[in-house]
Structure formats: structure tokens, C-alpha cells
Amino acid sequence: MKPSRLPMLLAALLVAITAAPSIAQQSPKPEQLVKWRQSAYQVLAWNNARIKSSLEEASYNRDEVQRAANVIAALANGNLGSLFAPGTEKAKGWRETAARPELFTEPRVAQLAADFSREATGLAQTAASGDPAAVRESFNKLGRTCKACHDAYRVKD
Ligand code: HEC
User: Fold this and answer.
1) Which residues of 131-147 are buried (b: 16+ CB within 10 A; e: fewer)?
2) How many whole angstroms from 69 Cα to the centroid of ligand 1?
């Protein structure tokens, strides 16, 4: 090899090495996406339970409910849909995905996701009022959007 070609070769090698991690970052593996979405739903369930227990307790905890509602609203408006990328239809995350195949093809999913975002935002706003009766109503509305999507697009246990 001519010595003059060595720097070019090294430069090419360096590009290849440094490019690899950024490609991996741009497209996480299906297993990773499914783990993230299953984890996100677990966080939703956690915060749902916090609100439910505050509504059931004798003394309503306004701060606790506001914090939990904010987490739910952040997730609901955080584009969970991007975690349902092509290739994740049959992937295993923490467990086999429970998403039904129709979720990836039916346009109605977008409407259900939009309903969910709207009600989550509504709950966070109602929580600020500190009125338990209003929170209960928003909370029930939100719960119906969880159920509507699960009934149609989540495999039954
Ligand atoms: C637009 C559809 C949709 C909405 C809205 C929705 N979910 Fe789900 N949920 C799913 C799907 C699909 C799965 C299965 C994910 C997977 O296994 O890949 C799931 C899974 C779950 C799981 C199980 C996670 C695990 O450990 O695998 C829980 C808990 C859950 N959802 C709670 C909720 C709660 C609480 C709400 C409302 C506050 C909600 N979901 C709203 C579609 C939805």
C-alpha cells in the first residue's frame, strides 16, 4: 500500500466506527420499542392507581392527584404511537406484545389515541381545580378511553 493512502483509509474507518452508534440510536430495535411502550403503560397504570386511591380515601390529596395527572398527560401527549413502529407487530418486549394486529392497520386507532390525549389533558386541568367531584368525572372519562382502546386493540389476558 502506498503510504499516501493510509490517512484516507483511517478516515474512512473512523467514519464507519462513529456512524454505527448513531444509526443504532435512530432506529431502536423492535424489542426495545415494545419494552418502552409496555413500560409507559405500566407508568400510566401506576398514576391511575394514585388518583383512584386519593378519590377513595377520606381525605383527598390535591397535590398527589395533580402530580399523577401531570404524568399521565405528559405520556398521553408524548407520542406513544411512535413506539408502535413497523416491525413491532410481533416483537417481544418484557413479554410478548399484547397489541392486536388490527392496531397497526386500522385508522380508528388514531381517533382513540386522540380521545385519550384529550381526556388526559382534561384531567390534568381539572386536577388544578382541586374539586374531587370534577376530578372523579374527568378520571372516569379518561378510564373509558383506556378501555375503548384495550377492548379493540389489546389481546385479552
Ligand atoms: C390507543 C390505545 C391505548 C390506550 C388509549 C391505552 N392503552 Fe393500555 N395498552 C394498549 C396496548 C396496545 C397495549 C399492549 C402493549 C404491548 O404489549 O405491546 C396496552 C397495554 C397496557 C398495559 C400492560 C402493560 C404491560 O406490562 O405489558 C397496561 C397496564 C395499560 N395498557 C394501561 C393503560 C391505562 C391505565 C390507560 C389509560 C390511562 C391505557 N392503557 C390507555 C393500548 C392502549
Assistant:
1) ebeebeebbebbeebbe
2) 16
**Dihedral Cα 27, 33, 36, 38, nearest 10 deg:** 170
pLDDT for 85 equals: 97
pLDDT for the residue 5:
73
Ligand 1 and 80: CB distance under 6 A: no
For ligand 1, whether the C-beta of 68 sits within 6 Å is no
- For residue range 95-122, what is the model confidence (pLDDT) as tens digits? 999 999 999 999 999 999 999 999 999 9
| Separation of alpha carbons 69 and 51, rounded Å | 8
**Closest among 154, 43, 44 to 98, alpha carbons compared:** 154
pLDDT tens string 61-93:
999 999 999 999 999 999 999 999 999 999 999
Task: Looking at the CA of residue 45, tell me the nearest atom of ligand 1.
Answer: 35
**Residue of 34, 38, 41, 115 best suited for mutating to test ligand 1, as the one with most atoms within 8 Å of CB:** 41
